[in-house]
Amino acid sequence: MKKLMKITALIAAVCMMGMLFAGCDLTDESAVATVNGEKIAKSEFALYFNSIQGTMLSEAGVNTQDAAAINAFWANTEIDGKKAADVARERALEEAVKIVVKTQKAKEMGVALTSSEKSELNRQIGSMVTQLGGKANYEKYLKTLGMTDASYKKYMEQNTLAYKLDQQLAADPAYAPTDEELTQAAKAALRAKHILIATKDVNTGASYDEAQKADAKKRAEDILSRVKAGENFDTLMAELSEDPGSKSNPDGYEFTEGEMVTEFYEAAKALPIGGVSGLVESDFGYHIIKRLSIELTEEKIAQFKETQKSVQASKKIEAKVEEWRNDPATVVEVDEKALAEMEIAVEAQ
Questions:
Q1: Of 260, 294, 290, 293, residue with least CA distance to 278
Q2: What three-state secondary structure class fits 22?
Q3: What CA–CA distance (Å, rounded) separates 117 from 139?
């Protein structure tokens, strides 16, 4: 139930961002959209929307405790010619729609939650109630997010069912990658080393507070300046990197798609051999990445093919979900007015 634990942690992460969402102090059951007639109420859409906002702010390096910085981002940022706030609405809607499509397909295919899985959901919610200090505080907290107990439970059930569908599809030979696909993915392997300045405790995984993160970013920027000035990358890595694995991998990591966090993988992939990145932020902290050449032996290719089986199967499943989503038989109706009424974060605590 690792996926379920991640889902439960998500709502807590939204709380820890310390944000209040205007228009969310009263829950609203009117529909933002329908998928084949199934309603996505504002109270159900809220967590997708809040989560997307948090992701976008994090990717942009915005301090989520700084109201002025938050407001400036939403007021001034454009993405592909669209206001960032509108992009957030669109991304959240697409995520919510896909989950509904998947749960509808799951029911068609006879995939359902077992009684033990439902009990685990209730246990997770009960644990959250306890952590928040009781039912009244739990409901009050959900209300600040524009949610109700019922809409949160529905969110949990839908995401767990969607994950269960993924697991069933992954076991279907139709989604197994071909040997040629695996070989191509293996031959696209990368090698890179990095200097990491962490923004969470490397032993406990606990995130640093905003002051600690700001200090980490400054230290990473100083190191990057030293790298650009010509100091030896390996020496700086040995002395300053906060990645425990760097010491046992002084020649760098060898990896294929899906083995590293997305930010690290995409940054390394974009570099030329011998190239050094700017600061690359991930959930782990700030990376300075140097791409290296890689020697692909037959043994390494065979190993990489094994690691790519699940990655390539997941890509095929995602393609199938896109196919379902874009099927003319899938009718998605959006209430643009209701969607526009879902307001962006306006202040920080």
A1: 290
A2: coil
A3: 23
Choose among 292, 261, 290, 263: nearest CA to 277. Answer: 290
Strands 285-292 and 190-198, by their bridges, are: antiparallel
Report CA torsion sign: 212, 218, 219, 220.
Answer: positive
Average confidence (pLDDT) over 294-320: 96
Q: Is 206 left (phi over 0), alpha (psi -120 to 50) or beta?
A: beta
Q: Cα–Cα distance between 178 and 182 in angstroms, integer? A: 6
321: which 2 tokens?
């979900």
Q: How far apart are CA 62 and CA 56, in angstroms?
A: 9
Instruction: Report CA-CA distances (Å) from 345 to 52, 64, 84, 208, 335.
Output: 11, 10, 12, 22, 21
Residue owning tokens 């709380």: 15
In angstroms, the CA 194 to CA 152 distance is 40
162-213: pLDDT as tens digits = 999 999 999 999 999 999 999 999 999 999 999 999 998 888 888 888 889 8
pTM of structure: 0.78
Give the type of residue at 96: A
Token pair 């109270």 in the structure block, residue: 43
The token pair that represents 127 in the structure block: 């644990």
pLDDT digits (tens, 9 = 90+) for 311-320: 999 999 999 9
Give the C-alpha separation, 10 to 161, whole Å: 17
- How far is the C-alpha of 345 from the C-alpha of 71, rounded, in Å? 8
The distance from CA 210 to its chain's CA centroid, rounded to whole angstroms, is 20
